[in-house]
């Protein structure tokens, strides 16, 4: 038996020589290509195990055109992405699922004006095998090229285009935003509240803000526009929006806030105005992020959606779905605590 020099790393030529087949046959076995006889596949795999051969990843990529990298594209400033517990859970779910498939997440931000062009070029340049995209705003270069991407892509949330339509070329994973909002507002109505306001998210981003507002209006179709205040899914945005609502309607007795982080800000504004929760104003949030909802004073009644599972599903669809698999809408449910 031929001995390898000490420290010699087995090569594909070593495997071919020991197996009695050509180098190209070994390459086809390694890459899982068809038309190799089963007995040859078994023989080559046995030699690979005996020699401890590890395929050269760079060479494999040249053959298979795979990078084992998935772009995770977020249209958010990096400081908000890492400070917002919603995005933290979403990213953890994505990374965990990618790891199960031996893939690495490449996190790309759309923060500066020229980032859309840079990221669009990156996605089209063969650097990644697939992409997960969330919090995208309509009208950017990414939206222009999404339908032409030749890599699998999944959206986190149902994305909006400039005309209000949605992207149909790729799958998405979203929570039942409209149904969850209806549950929240119906609960407030059941408590006997009559002046129910809402703090909604930005209309120019994911479909979630429009859907949560639609759920509010499903239950309260005659609510005046003055009871609706738009914010930006941030704590400060919730504080400012709640203050504006109180300025216009100091007699309001309930508010549905379209995210837990904004609800945290809304509670602070109510406290600053001397409003008791829930005695004077009942508050319901959306997301059920435990680090917020269980820590507020009082603890926050909110709509639960499994954000980590949504992240996992986004990544899983890249690997599992046939081309005709429909997008996934994750159920929501109301979690009762002390704020309403």
Q: What's the topology here?
A:
Elements: H1 12-19, H2 23-30, H3 38-51, H4 57-64, E1 69-74, H5 78-83, H6 85-100, E2 104-109, H7 115-123, E3 130-134, H8 141-146, E4 153-156, E5 171-175, H9 177-190, E6 196-200, H10 207-219, E7 228-230, H11 235-248, E8 254-257, H12 260-272, E9 282-287, H13 290-293, E10 301-304, H14 307-320, E11 328-330, E12 333-335
Parallel strand pairs: 1-2, 1-3, 3-4, 4-5, 5-11, 6-7, 6-8, 8-9, 9-10
Antiparallel strand pairs: 10-12
Helix pairs in contact: 1-2, 1-3, 6-14, 9-10, 11-12
Summarize the structure.
By secondary structure, this protein is of the alpha/beta class. It is built from 14 helices and twelve strands.
